[in-house]
Amino acid sequence: MKTVLNFLKKEAVLCVSGILALISCFIVPPSPSYAEYIDLRVLILLFCLMLTVAGIRQTGVFTVICEALLKRLGSIRSIGAVLVMLGFFMSMFLTNDVTLVTLVPFTLLMFEKISGEGKARAEIVLLVLETAAANLGSMLTPMGNPQNLFLYSKFGLSVTEFIGIIFPYSAVSLIMLTGSVFIFLPKLKTEKPAAENKIQGRIKPILFAALFVLNMLTILRILDHTLLLVVIAAAVLITDKRLFLRVDYSLLLTFVFFFVFVGNLGAIPALSDSLQRILKENEVIVSIVLSQAVSNVPAAILLSGLSDNANALIIGTNLGGLGTLIASMASLITYKFYASANGSLPKKYIFVFTAFNLCYLVILAGIYFLFT
Predict the structure, then answer these.
(1) Residue 222 and which of 91, 116, 141, 354 are 20 to 30 A apart at CA?
(2) How many Å is the Cα radius of gyration of the chain?
(3) Residues of the chain with pLDDT > 90: what percent?
C-alpha cells in the first residue's frame, strides 16, 4: 500500500492524465482513429533528446565546466551570477530539468563548505534563482522544454517564428534574474573546490555532441525523425545501453494519455465547442491558471486541442511555469534535492520560491496584458 501511495505522489500528473484518458475512452469507445491522436514525431524527438542529453551529462562535461568556473570565483554573489546565467543559457538547449539536475547538486555541495550568518538564506535564494533561470531560459527555444517542443511541432512554426513570439519575455527575464542576483545574494566567501571530476574519455563527448546536432537538425525539420530514432537508438545500444534507463518514460506516457484525452474531447462536438468558446481570447490567462494546478506541459497539450492561437498558448504555458512549485515539473527537481539535504528548511524554501516566482509571473504577465 505504501509503495502505491508513493507512486501516486511521485507520478501525480501521470496518474491524473491516465484517469482522464480512461474516462474519455468510455465516452468515445476505442477505435482505429485513436492512432491519429498520437503525435509520434513529438514523442520521438523527446525520446531522442532525452537519450542524447543523458549521454552528454554522463561524460562529465558539465561538471568539469562548473568546477573550472568556481575555482576562479570567491563569493556567493559572483558564483551565483555565473550559475544563474549558466542555468538560463544551458536550459535553452539542454532542457530545464537536465540543467537543474546538473547545477543543483553542485550548488548544494558548494554550500557544505560555507559557514557564517546568512548561509541558509543565501542557499535557498540561489537555488530558487537557479530554478527560475532554468525555467525562464528554456522558454526561448523549441527544445528548451517539452511543452515548447510540442507546440512548435503542433503548429508547424519555424524556429525564428517561435523565438520571435517569446523573445521579449526572455529578455525581460534575463534582466530580472540579473537584478535579483545582485540584490538578494550576499558576498559570503567560499572555498575554491578541488578539481575532482574529469571528462570521461574523448570519443563519447564527440559522439554525443554529434548526436545532439542531429537532434537540432531534426527539430529544424532538415532530417527525418524516424531516421533520427534509428541512428540514436543504434548509437546508444553500441556505446551504453544503460542510458535507456535514464529516459523519463513517465513523461512520454503522460503525453500519450493527454493525446488520447484531447483527441476524445475533439470527438464530442458539443463539449469541444463549449470549451472553445470559453477559451477564446482568454488563452494566456487560462494557460497560466491551469499550469498552476497541473503544470505547464499537460496544460499545453490540453489547450492546444481547443485553440489554434499558437502565440497565446506559447506565451501562456511558458509564463505559467512560474508560480506554484508544480507549475513546472522541473521545479520539483530542485526542491527534492534541497529537501533531502542535511539542515534543509523545506517550508522556508517553498515560501521563498513562491514569492520570487509570483513576482516574476506578475511582471511578465503584466507586460503581456499591457502591450497586447
Answers:
(1) 91
(2) 21
(3) 35
Report the amino acid identity of residue 218. Answer: T
Q: Give residue for cell 558548494.
A: 110
Q: Within 13 Å, how many C-alpha atoms sit on residue 328's CB side?
A: 36
CB atoms closer than 10 angstroms to residue 163: 15
89-139, pLDDT tens digit by residue?
999 988 898 888 888 888 887 787 666 667 888 899 999 999 999 999 999
Place of cell 489547450: 303
99-105-109 Cα angle (round to 5): 140
Spell out the residues 6+ positions from residue 131 whose beta carbon is closer than 8 angstroms to its own: 87, 100, 104, 330, 331, 334, 353
The CA-to-CA distance between both ends of the chain, in Å, stands at: 51
Residue carrying C-alpha cell 491516465: 18
- Residue for cell digits 497560466? 288
Are the C-beta atoms of 165 and 311 separated by less than 8 Å? yes
Nearest to 258 by CA among 15, 68, 9: 15
pTM, rounded to two decimals? 0.84
pLDDT of residue 115: 65
Distances (CA, A) of 135 to 140, 305, 319, 334: 10, 24, 9, 12
Within a 10 A sphere around the Cβ of 10, how many other Cβ atoms?
A: 13
Angle at 179 between CA 148 and CA 108, to 5 degrees: 75
- The H or E element spanning position 294 is helix 283-294
Q: What is the mean pLDDT of each run of 10 residues along the chain (372 residues)?
A: 67 79 86 83 88 82 69 76 92 88 82 72 93 96 92 93 95 96 81 58 83 88 92 92 88 85 77 77 90 86 88 95 89 86 88 96 94 81
